[in-house]
């Protein structure tokens, strides 16, 4: 086993939207990437037509996540189980403690999460980004060497360049299969990616900005668009 990679997001499907092909590449290299989700995704209006109530929806989305994890090659998926849509209202220190525990348990070295704008401004995305950064800065996660943020409009506006860029074309069928595994989310998926049988040129790249490395926020961007050796 080489480097230990962890992905930390808010909802089941965030990992596939932003980082399906990166996760798959790591798995194909023999790594064992792991995923932490803050919620079980039980608040969406989508999917309630298939579930009697929120608990049923949460179970359905966990099952979908398990199926997606197989497609992506994730070695482990954990859910903190905070209420979907309300992450910004819960005790922040408790949320951070859950992230720290996950990082410590897996002795993670390289982390990926949302940028501070949450990519699309979703309060859950913003909050888990802040919690991940707080965990890294807490001094309680000495295994962590790098924290990457999924590239976002705010990061680009501030001049932050991506140092990991994954072209999804070669693995698009895999990414489409992982998206389809999140079946309750089909409306949002179609809105963002269009018809999954066609490669979405405008959603071609998964890109990540190095936000923290070895004690320093916003280190100089890495030169090569390469994963860890
Ligand atoms: Zn989300």
UniProtKB/TrEMBL annotation:
Pfam families the UniProt entry points to: PIG-L
One of the record's GO molecular function terms: hydrolase activity, acting on carbon-nitrogen (but not peptide) bonds, in linear amides
Record's protein name: GlcNAc-PI de-N-acetylase
């Amino acid at each position: 086993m080489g480097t230990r990679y962890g992905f930390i997001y808010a909802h089941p499907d965030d990992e596939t939207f932003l980082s399906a092909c990166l996760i798959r590449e790591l798995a194909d290299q023999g790594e064992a990437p792991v995923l932490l989700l803050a919620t079980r995704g039980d608040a969406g209006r989508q999917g309630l037509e298939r579930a009697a109530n929120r608990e049923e929806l949460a179970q359905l989305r966990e099952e979908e996540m398990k199926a997606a994890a197989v497609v992506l090659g994730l070695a482990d998926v954990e859910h903190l189980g905070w209420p979907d849509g309300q992450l910004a209202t819960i005790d922040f220190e408790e949320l951070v403690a859950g992230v720290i525990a996950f990082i410590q348990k897996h002795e993670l070295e390289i982390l990926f999460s949302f940028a501070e704008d949450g990519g699309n401004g979703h309060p859950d995305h913003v909050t888990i980004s802040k919690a991940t950064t707080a965990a890294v800065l807490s001094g309680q996660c000495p295994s962590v060497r790098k924290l990457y943020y999924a590239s976002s409009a705010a990061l680009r506006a501030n001049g932050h360049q991506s140092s990991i860029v994954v072209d999804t074309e070669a693995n698009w069928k895999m990414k489409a299969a992982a998206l389809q595994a999140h079946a309750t989310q089909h409306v949002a998926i179609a809105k963002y990616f269009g018809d999954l049988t066609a490669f979405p040129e405008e959603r071609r790249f998964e890109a990540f900005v190095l936000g923290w490395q070895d004690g320093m926020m916003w280190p100089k961007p890495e030169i090569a668009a390469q994963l860890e050796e």
